[in-house]
Design goal:
By secondary structure, this protein is an alpha/beta fold. It has helices at residues 4-11, 22-28, 38-43, 59-67, 80-92, 141-148, 164-176, 197-201, 205-212; strands at 17-19, 49-53, 72-77, 98-102, 117-123, 151-161, 183-185, 218-223. It is 34% helix and 20% strand.
Length: 229
């Protein structure tokens, strides 16, 4: 198994891997090279773009890409040594509808243009359980406002988590914003409808870990609009 430094180095060589260099862009305010051009420059098609925020090892990004051949997927994380696994797998399997980007969520509006993204997946993020850390939860209104800057009107946000605090917080945020979830489950293992199959079967490393420990996996998806925010 390669070391962390070896993964950092190899990630930079993958044709499907990119890095948004924090210091350079903070100083220059320059936007990312594929800003508003992901379809044209990288994917070379007009398929919808789906992003996974905090993709970790990239299992979910890759799993979605294999399931939905008619969509493009970008896994986003701040650690390239994590994404190395997913990027390498995608290269080896010749998955042309997958990219990975090393950046921070705060910089996404410089990476993705208005109306460039059709769906967002947030899978097993840090729940920041302490109330004093609530503003760091990826479903906090400040992040929903950020997502709206590049998410299409009627674009969908998906949340998958085992954490009760984060899930209940998210549902409270949606209620306060008068947003009705499109789909909602407090235990996806109990859902039997066909539309739940891929949600149940595609799993991240952490989901597998949490499931084996007996944690119930929760899921909701919803739309946001300017009227809500």
């Amino acid at each position: 198994m390669p070391t962390k430094l070896q993964k950092f180095a190899e990630f930079k060589t993958f044709p499907n891997a990119f890095t948004y260099l924090y210091d350079d862009f903070l100083i220059s305010e320059k936007k990312f090279e594929h800003y508003n051009l992901w379809n044209k420059n990288f994917f070379q098609n007009n398929h919808p773009i789906v992003i996974e925020i905090g993709c970790g090892r990239g299992e979910y990004t890759v799993g979605l890409a294999e399931h939905f051949k008619d969509k493009n997927f970008i896994g986003i994380d701040c650690k390239s040594n994590r994404m190395w696994k997913g990027a390498k797998y995608a290269v080896e399997k010749k998955l042309s509808n997958v990219a990975f980007l090393r950046t921070r969520v705060e910089f996404l509006e410089k990476v993705l243009a208005p109306d460039e993204v059709s769906e967002i997946w947030i899978t097993f993020p840090d729940p920041h359980e302490r109330k004093s850390r609530a503003k760091n939860r990826l479903t906090h209104p400040k992040f929903l406002k950020l997502y709206k800057k590049f998410l299409k009107e009627n674009g969908i946000i998906h949340l998958k988590t085992d954490n009760n605090i984060l899930f209940e917080f998210t549902l409270e945020v949606l209620q306060n914003l008068n947003i009705q979830p499109l789909q909602l489950s407090f235990d996806i293992s109990k859902e039997t409808q066909p539309e739940w199959e891929y949600i149940k079967n595609i799993k991240t490393y952490y989901e597998q870990l949490f499931s084996e420990k007996g944690h119930t996996i929760k899921y909701c998806c919803f739309k946001i609009s300017n009227a809500n925010l």
